[in-house]
């Protein structure tokens, strides 16, 4: 048994079902069920009455949650107490497109200013995945795209940059406007499984309803390379300047009503004021300041 199982049990009672609790703790309903079974084996008695269609917590389950409530709260307070110095280990998630953009500058700044802070960057790529990992306390901070709906109130959202979408065209493309370029070339899509890809697709189809996506890619480097070879045009969040210059692709602005995405640094409410989190936030804010284009 571990504390995570007890937190899951408390969440089930708060949310009213295994499925709702799974969404809060950041795991699947089957994983929640497994944790409950392990707790029942540990205590040697049932925690839920399963004789009806809706599982009902037993009196013993409520007693367990009551006993662990104060203990869990006190542990969380100890965990979130601001550190005197910036040191220790912090897990930072970063979306793919920012891993080669601002991440190197932020890590360099942290290493120079806080050499005793061990920054771990797990192999995570998607904003939704990182939000789940934050809620489950498997990540401490994440740089990601804020959902269009606003995002969970259980998290602190610090907006760092509004990244506009642009159209990328081959170096010698003849069309002058975005519409002309979309009419003249195939469309290289930005991964439609990502919220950013869906935003780009909506914009493309608002100008060319019958647009056909000839290929769909997640890697920004791959998209730029395809466009540079004349294989199509693409609407994407504005790539980093060195990448655009290296391939000599043409970047076309989408005007004053161009869509954009909100790049935000996110952490749990309970970590507000944590020195390590503040140091990471400052490093990324500085990196974005260095990366902004005139």
Structure description:
By secondary structure, the protein is α/β, with parallel strands linked by helices. The protein has three domains: 78 residues, Winged helix-like DNA-binding domain superfamily/Winged helix DNA-binding domain (Arc Repressor Mutant, subunit A), CATH 1.10.10; 106 residues, D-Maltodextrin-Binding Protein, domain 2 (3-Layer(aba) Sandwich), CATH 3.40.190; 98 residues, D-Maltodextrin-Binding Protein, domain 2 (3-Layer(aba) Sandwich), CATH 3.40.190. It has twelve helices and eleven strands. The strands form three sheets. Strands 3, 4, 5, 6, 9, 10 and 11 form a seven-stranded mixed β-sheet that branches. It has a two-stranded antiparallel sheet with strand order 1-2. It has a two-stranded parallel ribbon with strand order 7-8. α1 packs across α2, α1 packs across α3 and α1 packs across α4. The longest helix is centred in the N-terminal third of the chain and has 22 residues.
């Amino acid at each position: 048994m571990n504390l995570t199982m007890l937190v899951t049990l408390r969440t089930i009672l708060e949310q009213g079902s295994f499925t709702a609790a799974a969404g809060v703790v950041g795991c699947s309903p089957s994983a929640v069920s497994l944790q409950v079974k392990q707790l029942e084996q540990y205590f040697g008695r049932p925690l839920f009455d399963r004789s009806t269609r809706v599982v009902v917590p037993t009196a013993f389950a409520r007693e367990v949650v009551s006993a662990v409530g104060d203990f869990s709260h006190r542990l969380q307070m100890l965990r979130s107490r601001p550190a005197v110095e910036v040191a220790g280990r912090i897990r930072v998630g970063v979306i793919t497109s920012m891993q080669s953009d601002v991440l190197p500058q932020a890590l360099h700044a942290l290493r120079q200013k806080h050499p005793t802070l061990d920054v771990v960057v797990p192999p995570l790529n998607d904003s939704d995945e990182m939000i789940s990992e934050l809620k489950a306390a498997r990540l401490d901070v994440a740089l990601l795209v804020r959902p269009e709906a606003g995002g969970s109130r259980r998290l602190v959202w610090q907006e760092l940059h509004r990244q506009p979408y642009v159209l990328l065209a081959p170096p010698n493309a003849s069309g002058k406007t975005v519409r002309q370029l979309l009419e003249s070339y195939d469309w290289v899509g930005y991964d439609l499984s990502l919220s950013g890809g869906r935003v780009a697709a909506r914009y493309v189809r608002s100008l060319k309803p019958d647009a056909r996506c000839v290929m769909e890619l997640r890697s920004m480097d791959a998209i730029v390379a395809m466009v540079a070879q004349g294989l199509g045009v693409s609407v994407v969040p504005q790539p980093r300047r060195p990448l655009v210059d290296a391939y000599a692709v043409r970047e076309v602005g989408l005007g004053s009503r161009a869509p954009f995405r909100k790049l935000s640094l996110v952490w749990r409410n309970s970590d507000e004021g944590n020195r390590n989190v503040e140091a990471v936030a400052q490093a990324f804010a500085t990196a974005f300041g260095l990366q902004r284009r005139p």
